[in-house]
Amino acid sequence: MSISGECFCGDVKYQVEGNLRDARSCHCSRCRKAFSAQASAYAVVEPKEFKWVSGKELLTSYVGEHGFGLQFCKICGSTICGILNGEVHGVTLGCVNGDPEIELGRHIYVGSKASWEQIPDGVPQYLEGEPEGWSNA
Ligand SMILES: [Zn+2]
Ligand SMILES: [Zn+2]
């Protein structure tokens, strides 16, 4: 399938020719800050199926010590994608346009969720569980 995504201001756009995989939401305190939200909402992409359509020069990156990082639009601040060792690793579901035909499959680090968050029943929850490539993020 063909999936598009863009930031809040619309200057950064990308296209995925393929499927998103392993959609997950991490409730750790670091993801809350990185996503400015109650949790992350993120899915993995195949790097060769991902391409920037516009605004690549507007991206700014924050990379942690394990080579995993996030890229943001420096105009509007949207968290757009995750990178691992300089290559795109996944996309934030909030910036995906339309229906990517995937749902969050697991909620992780619910043991450290914010006191104000209520997680709905009926979704797989894990007290911990760092997904691959998401080290300390
Ligand atoms: Zn933007
Ligand atoms: Zn996290």
TrEMBL record:
Entry annotated with the keyword Lyase: yes
A GO molecular-function descriptor: carbon-sulfur lyase activity
Organism this protein belongs to: Amphritea balenae
Protein name stated in the entry: GFA family protein
Coiled coil: none
Keywords (A to Z) from UniProt: Lyase, Metal-binding, Zinc
Superkingdom of this protein's organism: Bacteria
Segments forming domain CENP-V/GFA: 3-117
Similarity comment text for this entry: Belongs to the Gfa family.
InterPro entries per the UniProt record, alphabetical: CENP-V/GFA, Mss4-like_sf
Pfam families, sorted: GFA (PF04828)
This protein's record includes keyword Metal-binding: yes
